[in-house]
Design brief:
There is one protein chain. Helix content is 24%, strand content 28%. The chain is α+β, with helices and mostly antiparallel strands and 419 residues long. Strand 17 and strand 18 form a beta hairpin. Helix 6 packs antiparallel against helix 7 and helix 9 packs antiparallel against helix 10.
Length: 419
Amino acid sequence: MEAAQSNYEPPVECPLLRELSSTNVWNSVCSFLSKDGKPEELMVPQLLVQEVMAKPKPIENQDILKGMVRADDGWLRCEDQEIIDRQKGIFLDVLKKLASLLADGKPVVSLSLPVRIFEARSALERICDLWSFFPSYLPRAAAANSPQERLKLVVTAAVAGLHLSSSQWKPFNPLLGETFNGYFPDGTAIYCEHTSHHPPITNFLVIGENFKFSGRYEYVGNLSTNTLSTRQVGPNIIEFKDGGRVTYYLPEVKIKGILMGSRKIKWSGAFVFDDPANNLSAVLKMSSQKSSFTKSAEVDIFEGKLFRSKGPRKASPLTESKAFEEEALKMADSDGVLADITGSWLKGLKIGKTVYWNATKDKPTRHLPSPEPLPSDCRFREDLLWTGAGNLAQAEAWKLALEERQRADRRLRESSGKQ
């Protein structure tokens, strides 16, 4: 889609979206801002028609990881010059904005990251990349003839999707009430909604023919020196039609080179899976150069075990992530081991002597956006649309306006005693 010019006029309403029209929104389809709340300098972006939204996403590994390369130490290193150039000076830009806010007496929460480091997607859609191997493995898990084989296939489905969500571009933070709904080509339906602003929490539901996947992610992060550590805290629950249930918790993501040096990314910590009804668990230790669990210095490598669990853990996976991981790793190192799990989140996974996933041979199934979205769908966000059109000035202006609207809404809820 070409960037709009200064004399840009809104296009004729897309027939596909006509049913979403409302007299209460100013751009004749839907907007997160009311007509009265729209600053005059903001231009209406062109809506993305279904043909654009449904453009095929890459399935070949070299295309999925385009602009990135696996370094000798196992980190996934960014070599895309456009991303590198856009992210130069971000730290100084943020400091300047912070100083300006403080000088004007404005709250620090008003700080907004520059839109030039964003991809034209919401985090609501980005998380769906993690589930790109569900259509390949979860139907097989539903039909598995033993709980052990089912757990092995669930582990594979979850691990195989990690590299698809490892982009160096930042997705847009969802607005409260923002939604995304899509589907996989086999008919599996996807529903996501951002249900809390502070703390930021997204709920999701994925419904397949023989399984249901649900849960929530609370987005947490910590910046230390030159590394950003982030985690999507929350349960990932897979329920099968026969009553089987497996819950897993994602490991942590570390992004190195925030201020200086090469921009690199890796998964860190523990990947934990539980099937309490059958007393089964699996724990993967994502490799670290300081790890005692695995001797490898290649940080994309993981090692783990599928084992008989000995009851629930004491630490909470929601409020004590580190303690939960340590407890799970200790349990995995005890008696009752049923199979060893080895591999790399960039290359493949082996359980026992069987290769369950090969990143070169096994292709993901990419999700598609629903042709009948809700008015709250992220595809209607003007800042996102302008980013996709290449007009970063309008994207920045819209992003600031939408963020201020969200803060104003929060003040209204607080003044009425409702969060």
